[in-house]
Amino acid sequence: MKEGPDIAQIGALIGDPARANMLTALMDGRALTATELAAAGGITVQTASTHLSKLEAGGLLTQRKQGRHRYFTLADDSVGKLLESIMGFAATRGHLRHRPGPKEPALRKARICYDHLAGDYGVRMLDSLIAAGAISAVDESLRLTERGETHLTSIGIDVTGLRSTRRPLCRSCLDWSERRAHLAGSLGKALLSSFFDKGWARRIDDSRSILFTSEGERRFLALFPLATRQTDKARDHANAGM
Amino acid sequence: MKEGPDIAQIGALIGDPARANMLTALMDGRALTATELAAAGGITVQTASTHLSKLEAGGLLTQRKQGRHRYFTLADDSVGKLLESIMGFAATRGHLRHRPGPKEPALRKARICYDHLAGDYGVRMLDSLIAAGAISAVDESLRLTERGETHLTSIGIDVTGLRSTRRPLCRSCLDWSERRAHLAGSLGKALLSSFFDKGWARRIDDSRSILFTSEGERRFLALFPLATRQTDKARDHANAGM
DNA sequence: TCAATGCTTCGGTTACGATCGAAGTATGAA
DNA sequence: TTCATACTTCGATCGTAACCGAAGCATTGA
What we know:
With about 240 residues, chain A is of the alpha+beta class. Helices cover about 50% and strands about 20% of the residues of chain A.
């Protein structure tokens, strides 16, 4: 009872919806500013500021001043592990947040996950890239193959340019609506940007859902055909442990 | 943000101190009644009742009616794993609950953990029993040896009687103040009861700390001498993985 | 049938914390 | 210097949920 580590304290830290949203927004390891996190949490910056200082005091976050910005990150990867394990548990209990209303199907189909494509289409894209041999998957780690580099360059992605950034090129990101992995990292971001640039799709207002044009959808589906049966093994491999 | 399982919901469930206390009280796998859990949480039965129904609705607990009692247990061992992982995390962040004030040293020395002896003396007792060959330890599982049965019977413990109960005889229980294991199970309970019966010690009011008489303390320390060097290996074994 | 026990439900109080407007501090740019 | 941006702190409001007393229901035992 009054014994043991104080699970109530960190439970309470995670238990506030705004804080939980900010934490999940940080789960891909990027550093975000207080203002960005306020948006992620759906609150004003003042409120976010108090939340962030609580999270920092609780050892979940660290901050790094850079100019007039303050970049927040998860304190270390044990925090990420903790959040992941809670997510996994919550998923088994069916504690998925269902936004009722007409927006939900669109969100499930295609949406922005930070800066890359998620949802049904996001999972399909990664599956297709793996099936085509463009990306090799070992456990959760993804790697762009030579064939993939050629292929993506041919459709207008500046792969060499992406390589020069500090951010990892390929990253597997768990898709909670699909319960499968999709492609994150700078490559995932570049691909989504290219869809916007080509006019295949656009964001809807302030929502995170992505609306494809009929022409864009046709092209997308042609570019990333459904993975066929014999590729299931590779795909499952990429999703191992999730 | 609005994506993924609702970690805030289960965070909030664990985030209330009373609920957290009730959950940790259930972590040894036993089923406890609502009244017992109310005591564990330090609240009235009415309040406990509402907490318990919330925890049940959240999928953390299940209840089983038996006569006019309602026995609550953790829904399954994934809940235990979850709580353990949070505890582990909380411990690394230094989120140990320190009761300030004079009571704390007494609590660390000897206290009740559900129904058995915990704290420094609890750890010492188990170490000593292992060193004496009364209990054999393989990983976290403890077993009473024949020599141990003879020994304990000679000091007035009705081992055969304890064997007839459904509850496991020996159980290893992690001691958070010592970060080491102590003896739980029906044998742990019986030993503590015998200390009370013999007048060696008594509970203090409503606190969980146990006060030894000077005579009782002398006898206890003589009965359970400090484990010597060469037994460290066995003891560490018993504490493996904690 | 009646009393006792274990637990839940109801009603009302209270306290805590999430929230935001407004003001204050720090950094960078003009 | 002045202005703009990024963020924090202060102060006040407000809503929710934790809490308990009292009453109600269910089970057991006499």
